[in-house]
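Narrative summary of target 7.
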Amino acid sequence: MMGRSFESVRQGVKSIADRWTRSSRALKKEDQQYGAQLVECAKMHSSEAFIACDDPLEAAVFSVLVEMMKRQDRIESSVREDGEH
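Modeled conformation, tokenized:
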């Protein structure tokens, strides 16, 4: 039995990011920036996600969710700091 190929997951995430880029261009002008941000987030942690994710879409979504949680934490920290002043 052959093992899964990390390269195929990496290529899959790249393919998904390419499709998401094209989809972002189809969004309303004011929403295109958010599509572009999703594409960047999808790529940020996809390498780490290769270890546990067999599915490129799962790796891309995992990466996006990690970045969303990090951003949420930064917002909450900023709000707490502003409340202390």
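The helical segments are 6-26, 32-44, 46-49, 56-84.
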